[in-house]
Amino acid sequence: MKKFAVVGRPISHSLSPKIHHEFAKQCNIKISYEAVEIEEDFESTIKEMFASGYDGINVTIPFKEKAFQLADQIYSKYKTLGAVNTLWQKNRKIFADSTDGLGFINDLKNNSISIKDSTLLIVGAGGSARSILPSIIEKEPKQVVIINRTLAKAEALTGLFDQSKVTVSISSLTDIIRTKITGVINTSSAGLLGEKIILPEGVFESAQWVYDLSYSKQITTFNSLAREGGIEAYFDGLGMLVFQAAASFEIWTGMKPNAEKTLSYLKGALN
Fold first, then answer.
1. Which residue blocks in 219-271 are alpha helix, DSSP H?
2. Strand ranges of the sheet holding 234-236, from the earlier edge strand across to the other edge
3. Minimal CA–CA distance to 94: which of 143, 128, 170, 43?
4. How many helices and strands (H and E) does the chain possess?
5. How far is the C-alpha of 111 from the C-alpha of 83, rounded, in Å?
6. pTM of this prediction?
């Protein structure tokens, strides 16, 4: 029986165990998959987990960048971004890849959203933003604007796309958004951590849709703010979670689960 886990902080809310066990049922294999909260030493905890027999580990907030630093070999084509969410061990070496971007794009497609030639606003510049931005750029939006509490962090992220045909720029949280925005994507963990979400004036004024990478049984804090701002099309990260999990599951087992079927099952179970 293969042994997997997801690690993060906080992690008790995670639906990943339910998702992966559903995948295992579909593929007729037996697995164990648990949620493990890491308080302090990420590196030693991961190494101990692999030493104790884990076959694969998913990584979520706030450890995606640390996971990148820990890996001996990165399989992702986005090596410059420094964030991964999928780990496994082979011949005593830790390998890593990122399935977040694929999961995000697949869920947009599942919700009939195209980002080609659109103008997007991304809230946050941490590991989650890093993990989806390359996949967003590949879909050829017209422009991507990044806002973050720490401007230096946003500048470092935009600097990775200096040669891109897509315009990637930054804006301050205190600046009024005057650009006509098509979609707003929240990658910040502020709402998940119960912190106040600070947004610039006019952030929802022209947006057609918003997407919060966090997910909740109820409407997320960010999506609640968007709804109050007049947004009718808002999505949370449940679909992204399922689609990225399917990609991780395939890396670990070589089997491709039915992500759409699992997503439908989860939505029914959460209602």
1. 221-228, 238-253, 259-270
2. 167-171, 143-147, 119-123, 183-186, 209-212, 234-236
3. 43
4. 9, 12
5. 26
6. 0.91
Cα distance between residue 85 and residue 60, in whole Å: 6
45 CA to centre of own chain: 22
Comma-separated ranges of CATH 3.40.50.10860 domains in the chain: 2-98+239-270
Task: Using 50 as the pLDDT threshold, list the residues of the chain that sit under it.
Answer: none
User: What percentage of the chain exceeds 70 in pLDDT?
Assistant: 96
Catalytic residue among 30, 47, 64, 66: 64
Q: Which of 33, 40, 79, 81 is nearest to 63 (CA)?
A: 40
Residue 86's beta-bridge partner residues? 58, 97
Which structure tokens are listed for 154? 């946003």
* Distance from C-alpha of 93 to C-alpha of 47, rounded to nearest angstrom: 10
Does the annotation count 64 as an active-site position? yes
pLDDT of residue 120: 97
Residue 41 φ/ψ, nearest 5 degrees: -80, 95
DSSP state of 229: T
> In the prediction, which pLDDT does 190 show?
62
As a whole number of angstroms, the distance between CA 11 and CA 214 comes to 12
> What CATH number was assigned to the domain covering residues 2-98+239-270?
3.40.50.10860
Task: Report the CATH fold assignment for 104-236.
Answer: Rossmann fold (3.40.50)
